[in-house]
Amino acid sequence: MIAFQPQKIQISPTRLDESATATAGVDFAGKIRLNDKSRPIIDVALRSFHLEITQNGRSEDFEIGLEEITLSIEPNLYQRDAEVTVRAQLSPRMDARRDASFAYRGWVEVLVMAELEDGHR
């Protein structure tokens, strides 16, 4: 059986010249099935995201040169849960990138999919 778990992960205020990294645990009601190479059958996909630039804590509106979001998932040894890691990066214009009064924050929503062993929901 395929199980789906949505997860919203908060991105704390981060300087514009740095990557933001956030993690969240995801629990399933049953044991995650292993493939023929003894690896858990689990993956993560991006559902939506909201990142905003702030200056001195207040929303600021200006152009952004690069937006990047990377997802990874690491199942644990118990095969009932996993940890999702989100890495986000915003790179606006050069004059704002090094200004400490600017930051970005927001959230990333992911969907974790896992194949569970028979008899589990």
Question: Compute the gyration radius: what is it?
Answer: 18 Å
Order of strands in the sheet with the most strands? 1-7-3-4
What is the rounded distance between the termini? 7 Å
- Average pLDDT, to the nearest integer? 89
Strand content: over 45%
Residues in helices, as a percent range = under 10%
Following the backbone from N to C, one meets helices and strands in this order, namely EEEEEEHE
Shape: elongated
Low-confidence stretches: none
Strand runs, count: 7
Q: What class do helices, strands and sheet pairing give?
A: mainly beta
Can you characterise this structure?
With 121 residues, the protein is mostly beta strands. Helix content is 3%, strand content 64%. It contains one helix and seven strands, in the order E-E-E-E-E-E-H-E. The chain has one helix spanning 94-97, and strands at 2-15, 20-27, 42-55, 58-60, 64-75, 81-92, 102-115. The strands form two sheets. It has a four-stranded antiparallel β-sheet, with no helix packed on it. It has a three-stranded antiparallel β-sheet with strand order 2-6-5. A hairpin with a 5-residue loop joins strand 5 and strand 6 (81-92). It is elongated, with a radius of gyration of 18 Å.
